[in-house]
Amino acid sequence: xxxxxxxxxxxxxxxxxxxxxxxxxxxxxxxxxxxxxxxxxxxxxxxxxxxxxxxxxxxxxxxxxxxxxxxxxxxxxxxxxxxxxxxxxxxxxxxxxxxxxxxxxxxxxxxxxxxxxxxxxxxxxxxxxxxxxx
Length: 134
Known about the structure:
Elements: E1 10-14, H1 18-30, E2 35-39, H2 42-50, E3 57-61, H3 69-77, H4 82-85, E4 88-93, H5 98-105, E5 111-114, H6 119-130
Parallel strand pairs: 1-2, 1-3, 3-4, 4-5
Helix pairs in contact: 2-3
């Protein structure tokens, strides 16, 4: 992938584990996504959105505290701001349980990735989101 292909995409990365967040951030930057904002949980992510950072794509962990991925997703999907309500969200989970995935599908996720994620998986999902395939 040409790193310039993603030079204008804005990503919000929500992950409570600093090491995982740092690793994913590095992978996203290496595929050419320079505009990445980070949050440690859903509450912090809502603050980032409220401060005006409206991403094209959100990568969001499922299990976080105090606000987990499900609660965060419910809040943004109910937002009165159509730009926020329609943001594509890819959930990050270590749970390979199909019931977890089904629950998030009902909340309007765009896709999901099982952790640990690879750079190739991130690139595929970012490209699919940009192409409107998610």
